[in-house]
Every structure is written in structure tokens, then in C-alpha cells.
Amino acid sequence: MNTQELYQKVTNTIIELLESHLEDWSRPWIAFGQDQDFARNAKSGIHYRGINQFLLSFIMLNKGYLKNTWLTFDQVKQLGGNIIKGEKASPIVFFKTGYMDNQNKFYSDEKISSLPEKIKEEKDIHSIPILKLYNVFNVAQTEKLDSSIYEIITAESLKEFEKDERAEALIFSTGAKIEILESNRAYYDRVNDKIRLPLREQFSGVAETFYSTALHELGHWTGHPSRLNREGGKKFGDIEYSKEELIAELTSAFCASSLGFSKTITQNASYIKNWLGILKTDNKAVVKVSYQAQKAADYIFELHKI
């Protein structure tokens, strides 16, 4: 399967998700953080990132799996288990950087490191992304593994609004200018580089909704020219505007899940239809957008560490 086919396979999965959501509003689009967890590898414990987080969380929801944990075929065998007969793997993608010159000759990392800068310039050697496909299985598709791998951890949802200290610290450690006052909308003012949020009490006592909204606007905030410098789009409906909204939604989802909150993506049909239009004309868009959202979430958490 070549790179273009990989992009199309990933994009088709997301298109299926969006179109099914437009037909059935009773189910969330994607719920990151079900079982209080990101999609992660059950053996290493490492969280999947970017488009893989997006894909696996959707597949978990669509298939009704109770845990967002995954293993490769080899890992299942290494842990002494089996894949249940008839179960099919789910695709994830892996990016690495390759190098190519003006004659389309490929160079490995080792070769590049030994080449003089003069040769690199003469041959116009430049980096290119290489996309590879891997397959994983949800732990629900396996058997005979250690019982701890199958344990479900549940937690009560917040019933009343109460400040979450981790979320508060993450949001306000960014140094973003944030105004919280009685208002009927939340937005990021790019010209003045300022976020406006309604009062916490206006979110019907649900802390998760307030924090998800704040993180969405922080997602936009990361795109400022002084930070990650993304093109924000000029008006609702144009391509860059729609991409930026999806980046902000995914940034919020990635951050919220890291804080232990379940996060569902928008139920705004207009946004979803716009995103469908983009995906059907650009099969690389969802991979690029997911990468930018992961970069934005990482940026927010890095500021928290400073």
C-alpha cells in the first residue's frame, strides 16, 4: 500500500465517522478519555498521538470496546495471549523523516549525517515525510492475557461545578490573556490576542464543559504568529477557518483527556459538513490537522512545565 493509499484509507475512516454522526445525533462523535484514558499501548503504556489517537478513539466508540488500550499482534504473543478468531486489526500510521535530492534519489538518516553541507546544497537535498501503516488490536479482541489488562476503571462524572486544580493550573500557566465574565459566547480575539469566556456558573454546573471550552480557545491561541503561527482563516466556511476549528476541537480533546476528562467533539452540523467537504477534496487534511492539534496540545503542556 503506497503513501497515497494510506492517506485515503485514514481519510475514508474519518469520513465514515462524520457521515454516520450526521445521521445519528444521539451518539457522541468521538469521546476521548472513555475509561479515563487516552488510546494507549497496553504493553508499553505509551499514549498514541495525533491521527492515531483520533482513529483508535473512534474505533473504540464505534465497536463498543470498554477500554482504549491496544496491542500489536507480536505484543499479544509476547504477553502469552491470542487474537480471538475472526477479529480484524485496526490501522495506525507512523511518520518518519526521509531525504530526497533533486534527482529523486532517496537518502537514509545515516547517509545524510555523513554528507558535507556543500553536497546537500548542490543536490538540493530536502526532508520528506514517510508514512507507514501498522496494525493493532484492542485488548477486547484478545484472550488469555493477564487479568489486569482487561480490568475496567470507572469514575463518577462531576455532578456539580467544582474547580479542578490541574485544569486551572494548566490553563492559566500558559500566560494567555483570559477574561471570564458574564457573556453568551466564548471566543479567541486574534487581533488583541485575548480569550473571552463566560462565567463558570453559566456552564450548568459541569466543570468539564467549561474546561473543554477554555482549552478549545487556547487551541486557537496557540496559532498566533508569536507561537505556532497557523493560518486562521477569514470567515466561517472557508477552508482554513474550518481546518482551524477542527484543530482547536482536537487540541481541546487531547488536553482534556490528559486531565482525565471525557471530551466529545462538536455536534454542530455546519462544522461537520464543512469538514466533510475538506476531507473529500484533500485526503491529507485530517492527518495534517491532527498533527497540528497534537503540536498545539504539546505546546500548552510545555508551558505548564516552565
Instruction: Give the overall shape.
Output: globular
Structural class: alpha+beta
Our count of helices gives: 11
* Order of adjacent strands in the largest pleated sheet: 2-3-7-5-6
Sheet of most strands: 5 strands, mixed
Can you walk me through this structure?
It is a single chain. The chain is an alpha+beta fold. It has one domain (3-90, 142-305). The protein is 43% helix and 16% strand. It has 11 helices and 12 strands. It has helices spanning 3-23, 51-63, 73-78, 109-114, 117-122, 147-150, 165-172, 207-221, 239-258, 269-281, 285-305; strands spanning 31-32, 40-41, 69-71, 82-83, 90-100, 106-107, 126-138, 142-143, 177-180, 187-189, 194-197, 263-264. The strands form 4 sheets. Strands 2-3-7-5-6 form a 5-stranded mixed β-sheet. Strand 2 (40-41), helix 2 and strand 3 (69-71) form a beta-alpha-beta unit. Helix 1 runs antiparallel to helix 10 (269-281) and helix 9 packs across helix 11 (285-305). The longest helix has 21 residues, at 3-23. The termini are far apart. The model is unreliable at 25-34 and 154-161 (pLDDT under 50).
Write a brief structural summary:
This protein is α+β, with helices and mostly antiparallel strands and 306 residues long.
Keywords:
three-stranded mixed β-sheet; 306 residues; globular
List the helices and strands and how they pair.
Blueprint: H1 3-23, E1 31-32, E2 40-41, H2 51-63, E3 69-71, H3 73-78, E4 82-83, E5 90-100, E6 106-107, H4 109-114, H5 117-122, E7 126-138, E8 142-143, H6 147-150, H7 165-172, E9 177-180, E10 187-189, E11 194-197, H8 207-221, H9 239-258, E12 263-264, H10 269-281, H11 285-305
Parallel strand pairs: 2-3, 9-11
Antiparallel strand pairs: 1-12, 3-7, 4-8, 5-6, 5-7, 10-11
Helix pairs in contact: 1-10, 7-11, 8-9, 9-10, 9-11
